[in-house]
Amino acid sequence: MHAFEFIRPKDPAAAVATASKGKTAQQGADVRFIAGGTTLLDLMKLNVETPARLLDISRLPLDKIEATPEGGLKIGATVRNSDLARHPMVQRDYAVLSQALLAGASAQLRNMATTAGNLLQRTRCMYFRDTAMPCNKREPGTGCPAITGSNRTLAILGTSEHCIATNPSDMCVAMAALEATIHVQGPKGSRAIPIGDFHLRPGSTPDRETVLEPGDLITHVTLSPPVEGSKQVYLKLRDRASYEFALASAAIVITIAGDKVTRARIALGGVGSKPWRSPEAEAVLDGQPATQANFRKAAEAALRDAKPRSENAFKIELAKRCLAHALQMAATV
Amino acid sequence: MRDDSPSSPSFQTRRAFLQTTGGTAAAAAIAAYAPAHGVDEQGISPSEGSGGSNIEGAVPITLRINGKDRRLRVDPRTTLLDCIRETVVLTGTKKGCDHGQCGACTVHVNGRRVNSCLTLALMHDGEEITTIEGLGTPDALHPMQAAFVACDGYQCGYCTSGQIMSAVALLKEPCGPDDAAVKELMSGNICRCGAYPNIVAAIQQVRQKA
Fold first, then answer.
1. Where are the domains of chain A?
2. CB contact burial B167-187 (16+ within 10 A = b; e otherwise)
3. A20: buried, middle or exposed (CB in 10 Å: 19+, 13-18, 0-12)?
4. What CATH number should be reported for the domain whose range is A231-331?
5. Does A112 score more than 80 pLDDT?
6. What is the per-residue pLDDT across A192-202, written as a single tens digit (0 to 9) for each?
C-alpha cells in the first residue's frame, strides 16, 4: 500500500475544504474520504487506489437516521449498513431497502460499510482490480479486455465499447426504486442529486462514475414519504446463497388497487453499468392488471436493449425471470 | 485459547521459535552489511509497541484490547489486523484473504464484529477491541469456545477464531431460531475444511442454553 497522510477534519466544511484541493473525486483521486473503508482499503491494497491523503470522516456527526418533517427519512452518510437495515422505520416503510442491505456482503462488512460508501462502491470487474491488466476505468485509454475476455458477471445494460463493468451495489438498486435523493456539500455549497442522475454510464469516460466534483462530500440521503399501500420486494439471484454479488437482482415498489397496478417503481441490479431503473418496465405495468403475463411483458421491456457479451448472455433470461418473479412476490405480499 | 504472548513462561510457541531462528538468520545476514546498531533496529523479537516505532511517520494511538489499554505507534497504513498480530502480538486473530472475503480476521470493535483486515488501526484510536484471546481462558472457556470443542466445529482450525468471534457477536444480533438464519448470518466466515454443520450445531447449542 502506498504511503498516505491521514487527516481527521474537525467538521464537514473542513473536510470539503481539504478535499477540494485534490485532483479529482473520481478514479485516480489523490484525496479520498474514508469511513468504513471496506471498498477503499481493499483497492488500496491492490494499488488500484493510491490516494496521497485520506480524510477520516467516520467521526463527523453524519451518522444519524431521522424522520423528515414531510414524513420521509434522512439517512446520514456514515450510517452503517447494518444499522440502516435494522432501523424500525426502514423495516416498516422502506422494506425493499432493508432487504437489499441484508442481501449484501456479510454481517461483519455491513457493520463497517456506510451509506455514502455504498453509493460509491466500485465494480468487482477482475480487470479493474488487477493492475497488471489494461482497463479503461482504471487507466483511461488502455482498453477493455473484459469485452472479449472473462465477462460472465459483467453488465448487459448501459455498457459501452469502452467498459462493461457492473455496478455491484444492492443498496443503490433499492434506492433507485425508492427514488432517493443524494445530498452533497461541496466547495460551492450544497446541492441535492436524484439517484438516477448520480451514477454515470461509462460512455467514453468509464473512469468517471458519478457526477461528484473535487471536494464534494455526501452528507446524507433522503427518502420521500412512503407511498400508502405500496408493496416492496428485493430479490437477488447469485452463484451462492449468501455473501456474493448479484448476477441479477430486482427492487420493486408497487401499488395495486383492485387488480390494477396504479404505480410501479422498478430497478435492476447485477446487470447494469449503474443501478438500473427501468422506466420501460414501469410503463408496461402502469394502469394494467397485475398478472403474471403482464409481469413477463414488463421484464421483456426492461431487457429489450440488453447487449450480451461472450459469457453473459444467460443474464438476459435470468434478469427477466428475476424481475417477473419479484413482481409476483410483491403482488402477493 | 492458549497464551501466545512472548512473556508466557509455560512453553516455547511455534511463533516464538520461528521468530528466534528466522530472526537470528536474518540478523546474521544483515550483520555482514550493516553496523551493529542497524542490526539492533531490525528488532528480532517484536514486543508491545515496537511494531511501528522505527517507521517514519508512525503515529501514536491507544487501543483498549481485551480490557487493557495498549499505547502503540503504528504506520498509518497498518490495518487493525496487522496491528493486533504484529504490533500487539496477539496471534489468535488470523489473516486469511486480507480482503474481507473470508472472515478469519473477525474481531469485535465496540462490541460489533468487523473484518479487521479492512480497517486501519489508527481509525480505532480510543476504541474497545475484543479478540479471541479476550473471550475465555484455557481453564474457563467462553461457552461458545466450549461448544465448538464439544461439537467438533473445526478441522484445521485456521478459521476457528474468526468463526467464534462471529458466533459470539451473532448471539446479540437479530437472528431467527432456525439453522438457515444462523447460516445466513455466518456466511461471512469461510471454512475450507467444510466444518459448517458442526459450527452451526455449536452455535445452536449455545443459543438453546441461553
1. 231-331
2. bbbbeeeebeeeeeebbbbbb
3. middle
4. 3.30.390.50
5. yes
6. 999 999 999 99
Closest-approach residue (CA) in chain B for A51: B77
**Coil, strand or helix: which one is A248?**
strand
Task: State whether A34 and B188 contact (CB < 8 Å).
Answer: no
Contacting residues of A for B184, CB less than 8 Å apart: 241-242
Task: Say yes or no for a CB contact (<8 Å) between B118 and A112.
Answer: yes
In the sheet where A248-257 sits, what is the strand order?
A231-237, A248-257, A260-269, A276-277
pTM confidence score: 0.91
Identify residue A218 by its one-letter amino acid code: I
Contacts of residue A214, Cβ cutoff 8 Å, sequence gap at least 6:
A19, A20, A21, A22, A23, A24, A25, A187
Using CA atoms of A10, A14, A16, A22 in order, give the dihedral in degrees to the nearest 10.
-100
Write down the architecture of domain B51-134 according to CATH. Answer: Roll (3.10)
Q: How far apart are the first and last CA of chain A?
A: 48
CATH domain B143-209 topology: DNA polymerase; domain 1 (1.10.150)
Q: How far is CA A81 from each of CA A75, A171, B191, rounded to the nearest angstrom?
A: 11, 9, 25
Domain ranges of chain B: 1-45, 51-134, 143-209
- DSSP single-letter state for residue A194: E
The secondary structure of residue B133, as a DSSP letter, is G
Cβ atoms of B62 and B69 within 8 Å: the answer is yes
pLDDT, tens only, B83-123? 999 999 999 999 999 999 999 999 999 999 999 999 999 99
pLDDT of residue B21: 59
DSSP A257: E
**Contact: A45, B99; criterion CB under 8 Å:** yes
**Contact flag A107-B169 (C-beta cutoff 8 Å):** yes
Q: What percent of the residues of chain B are helix, what percent strand, and what percent coil, each to the nearest 5? A: 40, 15, 45
Kindly indicate the confidence band of residue A24, based on its pLDDT and cuts at 50, 70 and 90: confident
A236: helix, coil or strand? strand
Q: Does A132 touch chain B (CB under 8 A)?
A: no
The DSSP call for residue B87 is: I
